[in-house]
Amino acid sequence: MNGNGLTILPVGGGGDFAPGTASNMSLPIKLISTDFDGTLFAEFENPPIPERLVSLIGDLQARGAKWVINTGRDMSSLMEVLARARIRIQPDFLVLVEREIYQHDGVRYVPVPDWNAACARDHAALFAEVRPEVASLMDWVNARYRATVYEDAYSPFCLIAGNNGEADLIHARMNEFCARFPHLTVVRNDVYARFSHANYNKGSALARLSQMMDVTRTEVFAAGDHLNDLPMLKSEYASRLAAPHNAVPEVKAAVARQRGFVSRLTCGNGVAEGLEYHLNGH
Predict the structure, then answer these.
(1) Does 229 lie in the same domain as 93?
(2) Which residue range is the domain that position 174 belongs to?
(3) Has residue 34 been placed in a domain?
(4) Is residue 9 a part of any domain in this protein?
(5) 15: pLDDT strictly greater than 50
(6) Structurally, how many domains does the chain consist of?
(7) What's the rounded Cα separation, in Å, for the pair 202 and 232?
(8) Which tens digits make up the pLDDT trace of 153-198?
(9) Distance CA 205, CA 177 (A)
């Protein structure tokens, strides 16, 4: 049990990339960035994170690669789900709420101070400007849709739509609202959406981690399934891209356009296939 209540079991070998003593300088992939829900994790599968993927990531970690879960979840939500999944490896880094970066220090996950402080400061300044105008947007949504809109610790406007069709329409209205405020953008995943600062997303956080590790984009693998993953599924941040079969069409198209791997397998099995594809020299 680590400092975040996460059960960690010993990493086992297996596959073509067995643990060894080789320097990570010999690895084609040194940083693995995976979205969580729908990419790494499937709630109703057993196990929810497939052993094939666990072994691949664990073996690469044993050889010096680092793994980041790059998610829209917050810390408590992610830790609770990982504990229930009883995964036998742990990520070296977390990107939470699509913007905050945390590093495991051997006991617990601690914030990357400069990044998180700038992130908090810039969001606070932007949201102070936006907040007085949000009530009119909430009124617009409430007058037309049976959707839930609210403010939380991460955004002055959060959305849970009744279905994806309504979410698309509200998303379009949110984009119109954003046009009035430099740096304001919409982060969307399925029927969920919220406002965020355009400079902080899964892609810019991945770029910061690459800088911290002194790795190039050719040494970075990224996999995701939904719209909020698009900022990190860019060849400027990771030249080795993958999407599982359950990814939304926009994600599949973006990955294919950049010569990434689109699997015919879903969720974690699709990510494992994509990781193997890139490890084997494609």
Answers:
(1) yes
(2) 115-197
(3) yes
(4) no
(5) no
(6) 2
(7) 5
(8) 999 999 999 999 999 999 999 999 999 999 999 999 999 999 999 9
(9) 25
